[in-house]
Amino acid sequence: MSSIQSIDLTQLEKEFPRPWPEENLRRSIAQQVRDSKRCIIVLDDDPTGTQTVYNTTVLITWGVEEIRRSLEEYEPILYILTNTRSMPEGEAVRINREIVTNLLLANMKMQRPLTIVSRSDSTLRGHFPAEVKAIEHVFLESGEQPFSGICIVPFFPEGGRYTAKDIHWVQMDGRLVPSAQTPYASDPVFGYKNSFLPLWVEEKTRGEVSSSDVVSISLQMIREGGPGSILTKLMQVKAGSIIVVNALEYRDLEVFVKAILDAEAMGKRFLFRTAASFVKVAGGLPDRPLLNRSELLRENTSEGGLIVFGSYVPTSTMQLKALLDMDGIVGIELPVKQVIIESTRNQAIANIARQVDDVISSGVDVVIYTSREIVKGNSDSENLAINQLVSSALMAAVEGVTCTPRFLIGKGGITSSDLVTVALKARSARIKGQIFPGVPVWDLGKESRWPGLPYIVFPGNVGKAETVAEIVNMLKG
Which of 109, 188, 245, 412 is positioned for an S-S bond with 310, CB 3.0–4.6 A? Predict the structure, then answer.
């Protein structure tokens, strides 16, 4: 599979039947979710998983009472931010176990049907299979029925991620590239060698699950047989099977979700490891327009905006360059080699906070960014420790800012998560919608440091080189 060639999306589409013709599937899904009082619980390993939904709550802390109050609102979707992609695997497992334990306790009286989604990166990075195993174990220990299957759904068209022929594709420079041939697969912590998802599962489970045992929901089945044929297959899968789901457009996902709901109505239960697009369909949310400037910004404010760039992926680096090339933007570099050394850390952070205050108070937009040179350790745990030191330095710099900016953009999953939890001290938020496809905007809770401030959660791997600059221009008016 290492010789898979890149392909044009239109050319790939021609290899498959036309999409399933039924047009009201999303509406039907929404009705089934409402009638059953089901809640889609999304354990999100960084805040970018909110990039397809709106009018939805995200919990940043997860006590039993906090979860219970949210479940009592009877909304179809509830996010719980775990931020586990920035943590060692053992800590990720512990947090997933704690949240699911609290969730089951919170739901003990209401007994709402729950769909558990372990939401992670659309380019296949994250703690798999450790996180889904942790969720499974808590359910089994609590006496819940075993999961009939674990569904892998990395489809995310907003970011150019598609799955076909059981291969996961990433759109780059106008063509679809097998995911293992992209820079994302070289991640120092979560790297992988296989784009063919059954082999990816075998690789990630270290042979515990053979590629030959992975069940495929193919595009042929989705588009020719519709929900009925998938339902038949789901009812026959061996308990605990890994199920790979192919999709090239939202209709493919709708067909699959309809079959899942029908299977669960017949007694099956599935666990999901997905990208963000699955959540919107699973909750039956209709599409809605992007947010505009008048829906976001407060009137009568003269301060500059603040953009915090932590992501190192190539897309982010190109976006940073385009942003720094704009007129009316001041760039302030956080020197990584200084902030990971104790003797120079505090002074570097204080200098940055002071400069940011000066720029914002003058009405000019400012971007804080980490130096682009990647500093690596000698092991996965050392790499994570370095990442955490850099991120905590960024947060300390933001905490040192005394002016309230006109808007805040957090660039990168770990950066945007740490901003909301550490620098802004938020416990919950409301997702307003998206300012650009795949880029969500949050309203932070009243307890946060800057309540009412438009907080734009910008994933590291979304958009073109000019996208961040275009959003900042739009916010400038």
Answer: 412
